[in-house]
Amino acid sequence: MIAGKIGSKAPSAPTPGFRVGDERLIKLTESAGHKVTSLLTKQGRPAGVLRVAVVGGGCSGLQYKMDLQDQPQNRDILVESAGVRVVVDPKSALYVTGSELDYVDALTEGGFKVKNPNAATSCSCGESFSA
After folding, report:
1. pTM for the whole thing?
2. Average confidence (pLDDT) over 33-62
3. Is residue 3 part of a domain?
């Protein structure tokens, strides 16, 4: 199951506006998990989430956008991977399904790297892709 609805609760309890998915949507490596956990802690959001989105832009037409937030938003898909809660909006989920997020700690060409099986082409700098 990539994404499914959260089980129903008592009628008086509000239903969360997000769905729960699994690592078939997006998976973090251990290195990425440690880095995101460290960043969330530094920002004072130990229970926060990493938002991964795909937006228009870059040399190849699409690029990734990542942001730290306090909680999932309405319609998000929530995935737990490498000890981190990751959220993806439904439109971005079409592009990132099956992706792996890694973190490389290097002086040159370091940072977060996305391995996306849906990317038909990517630019030479690795910052954008087309699907």
Report:
1. 0.82
2. 93
3. no
